[in-house]
Task: structure prediction
Amino acid sequence: MSENTIPLPVKLQRALVDIEETTGVPLAAGPFVVGVSGGADSLALLHALLSIVPAGQITVAHLDHGLRPESAAESVIIRDQAAAWGVAFVGGLAPVAELAAAAGQGIEEAGRQARYRFLAQVARERGAAVLTAHHADDQVETVLMHILRGSGLAGLRGMLPAGRLPEDPDIWLLRPLLGASRAEIEQYCRDHDLHPVEDASNRDTTYFRNRLRHDVIPLLETVSPQIGQHLQHLAATVTADYALLQQLSDVAMVDVTLDRGPGWILLDRTLWQGLPLSIRRSILRTAHRHCDPAGRDLGFASLEGARAAAEAPRSGQQAHLPGGVIVYVLPKELFLTADPSLLPVLAPQVGKPVALPVPGRVKLNEGWFVEATVVNARDARASRDFRDPWTAYVAVESQTPLLIRGRRRGERMQPLGMGGRHTSIKEIMIDRKIPAHLRQRWPVVVAGDQIVWLVGQVVDERFRAGETAARVVRLVCFQGDA
Amino acid sequence: MSENTIPLPVKLQRALVDIEETTGVPLAAGPFVVGVSGGADSLALLHALLSIVPAGQITVAHLDHGLRPESAAESVIIRDQAAAWGVAFVGGLAPVAELAAAAGQGIEEAGRQARYRFLAQVARERGAAVLTAHHADDQVETVLMHILRGSGLAGLRGMLPAGRLPEDPDIWLLRPLLGASRAEIEQYCRDHDLHPVEDASNRDTTYFRNRLRHDVIPLLETVSPQIGQHLQHLAATVTADYALLQQLSDVAMVDVTLDRGPGWILLDRTLWQGLPLSIRRSILRTAHRHCDPAGRDLGFASLEGARAAAEAPRSGQQAHLPGGVIVYVLPKELFLTADPSLLPVLAPQVGKPVALPVPGRVKLNEGWFVEATVVNARDARASRDFRDPWTAYVAVESQTPLLIRGRRRGERMQPLGMGGRHTSIKEIMIDRKIPAHLRQRWPVVVAGDQIVWLVGQVVDERFRAGETAARVVRLVCFQGDA
Result:
């Protein structure tokens, strides 16, 4: 039996079973919310669905876009049809033209968003999966659109038979008619005396899709009559290839991620460089997406620019990605962030313990210094009000040597102004959002076993430069050429 | 500096260094055989190459296709140009029209084959790599052609910067101008006063490419002006993705291959079923290629048909692939072959040792039987001339019980007609090309510790049914319903 002679309800049933097997989630028996525009495809989907699951499992959701004078009457027809078939109906009205104007969007994009918001709401209330009637010809257009607009494997997959609603990732979005052609669906409507209230071929009026449907695909069919089938097969092939690559990339991502937080991520550059090119690219994409919540498309040119910088023998380069994300190429790490203040080269770090002479200066990493100066108490009092966290005034007697080093495991201090309470340095660092990868080598100034200053953060109560201090030392941490 | 303002020789140099890094083979410094048609692209390639490597490293190879009256004069111009630049020249003349007629090919295909054979020959003599002048616009056409004609990832890669000549896999075929556009190349020719002898845009006159160049691509550019760049980027992305998937698939292929020989392969079905979909498909493709040396394209529909059969809960199905390759779905294996006589279900196999009564019959696997009958010596002598290997006449006394079992480790016999020489059963099996996966359970008829008959292959000298035999037993191994 050829693909095209399989009855639509059988195809639908098989697609739902396939979806259930692929996702491992019991989705084949409903409950379903079917998005019904009133076009041939959604009407056929609803009718075929009724022949394989009980009407009680189905809710028709119809959103009136209010764009055409006849749309209200069409909504009534759909409501009556649902009632005649014993199916629940939820209607909605969205002022799409106003929404588009308010958001500065195109009508089609605003309509699409309103429609999916509406479907998400109806499905959420019912704990149902959303079904749409996208079919094989829609799929061909989608794949072709991605090819023409530029895409990697992700786009070549086309629409997936099962995914999540972008508007609510808890809700499944199923497209069980992707294996059926527009011609098949229209024939099904004729065979079952179904009367679409809207001409489906005019429904999607975006310029791009219309050009594809009316100019591009007909021309491509003259050079390759099977182009539609080829693109469907390509989508099916690539879906599996992409899934495997994504799985590998996810595993590798865990391996190379040293640390991450909102808007930034630190990758092990050495490890990353040892991965296959496909995975190196994929990790940069994922890292960019992590840093740019708006999810701008990375694009091939900027991806390759970042990769070239990250693979260069010398560190110190930067690459700029969409969304203001910067890739800082460090000797052993890649740091991506849209917020340069989080950059580790802009944070002080200390290696081996080093003596801090008073007066004197100690060089840390990347042009960072700590400078110690003896000041008179009056200067100290006057300056203290600036509250620059990178300057500290401390009371240290002249016979007490100072040292700069990293924290020790379990080390504690008595933060100024907290009544002498002992607090672990680790807790203070977490509290002050020092990224984990910077904590180990974050400089602390110590006198013997006692913390004097957690640099840039907090002075210890025991070294408070009070009114009666015999000797006040000003500690300044700064980055510069000095 | 934008991509398009990088001088052609710099691009060429970078591409050669990239190729060297990617392949790990020292290819960047030559020696090179440059295929020169006399068109703008090959002339520019030759000229740019001369500015980065010594002329002594370069040989110009030009094949006169003898299709146009002016071609002989063009060959002379190219030879003179090569001489003027101090570059070795090898000319050839191929009667392409006659070759095409003889092979029943199109002129273009015959020309392409003759050209690559010629290039292979010139390169082989010089231990050189072949360079062709395929450029970015050629690449765009190639990728688009693969998309339109139906392709998975392999085709979407387009032409590779470095590969092997199909006509001689020992010779490298390099395409270092894939990153340069036709416009750039033509500009380079104008800037350096190079005079192509042939209009490159008319060179490739295949119907399909011409349709792409003159109809399809211009239309696509009206809907997506950057389509050319998008397709180049797609090819670059997919090349890396494909390489990784192929690497995974190669590793998995080794794991699932139980045995293989010319024209057949036996796969571990259980293991195969546990692999990701992408790899399952890839392994079927590789297995098909192994069985069909002509390398017919598998095609998505037949691939999916074979996969469905192979994944079905019940074994026993068959799927038919191009090139006459059949996939036999066995309980724990997949057997692919274009020669059904190699099918293991058509070969006898024995499990536990089992007594063979005389007269009597023993059932083996899959409808195979061994039958023992006492015959008179005259019948034996008369029948022996048929030399059916599946029938044996042996001298066995009536008090000697017979047993059927598999071979034992290190077991030996004295094959009939070899003067009583002891030979290991393993060696006989290898010599007689019994596939390794069938050897362990290949039935042998034994009397005590002595081999009587290696079924279907050879009788033991000690049980020869000679003139004086007291009792002759006919052993027949056959497959049937009995």
About this structure: Chain B has 17 helices and 22 strands. The two ends of chain B are 81 Å apart (CA to CA).
